[in-house]
Amino acid sequence: MKNNPEADEEEILEKCKECLIATATSDGVVRAELSALERDEFEKWKHVYFNQQHHDSLYDYFDNQGTSSVPNGHLLIINTFSNINTDVMFCLRKFSCQVDKLSIFKTEAQLSNRVKHFWSEESNDQMLILQCDITTVSTGCIKLAKLIIEQFRKDFIAKKDQMEHIVPMKHACIILHIHREQESTFSSFNFMCG
């Protein structure tokens, strides 16, 4: 309300609900029908989730986001129940991607070098996808990877602003592969957390 004093509380509440529903899983949205929500409220947010937001596929999501419309690029963390061996390159067929699995890196230096390569002028890739299976990779490693991505991205943006020629924007996405049967032992991640 401080940033936008003209927005009323109802408008802010609706925007918060929309953002919250964007983080839900499809089965969670369906189960919400059994909650204490009023029927109209449930139907409204079910419609938003399945018809207005883009949860169908990774390609659908990125295609809708308009990867070139964000001046400093997207930084995303996506939670999915899909298998870590899913062919992400095939799923994102129109995008030029560097796809890595966090578990293949044995040292911080290996990971840093790979992330550094993505953010360098040598790489023509638009998007860095880092896949993490939360049952085999520690939260500490995921947080370290997030930090490394943020550091090299910051350097890239600073250099990009000083270059005379136009450099296409780059985007980074960490995909957390979650197992339905796994009890929740990991903490929530986003690019805002420390």
From TrEMBL:
Domain of life where this protein originates: Eukaryota
GO function term, MF aspect, one: ubiquitin-protein transferase activity
Protein name, UniProt field: Uncharacterized protein
Organism listed in the record: Rhizophagus irregularis
